[in-house]
Amino acid sequence: MFGECSLVREWGRIGRAGTVRIETYSSRGLADMALISKWVQKRKRGYL
């Protein structure tokens, strides 16, 4: 909305209400880079 992109992350226990974090970026490219960065961090910790 209004020319910005948001990265929405949610985590928590299965079957329960999770925690939600919304990060707003000025461009789609920055949001994509943040998504890839978070994905790499998760892979290093053993998540699939």
UniProtKB/TrEMBL annotation:
<dbReference type="InterPro" id="IPR036930">
    <property type="entry name" value="WGR_dom_sf"/>
</dbReference>
<dbReference type="Pfam" id="PF05406">
    <property type="entry name" value="WGR"/>
</dbReference>
<dbReference type="InterPro" id="IPR049809">
    <property type="entry name" value="YehF/YfeS-like_WGR"/>
</dbReference>
<feature type="domain" description="WGR">
    <location>
        <begin position="2"/>
        <end position="47"/>
    </location>
</feature>
<dbReference type="InterPro" id="IPR008893">
    <property type="entry name" value="WGR_domain"/>
</dbReference>
<protein>
    <submittedName>
        <fullName>WGR domain-containing protein</fullName>
    </submittedName>
</protein>
<keyword id="KW-0614">Plasmid</keyword>
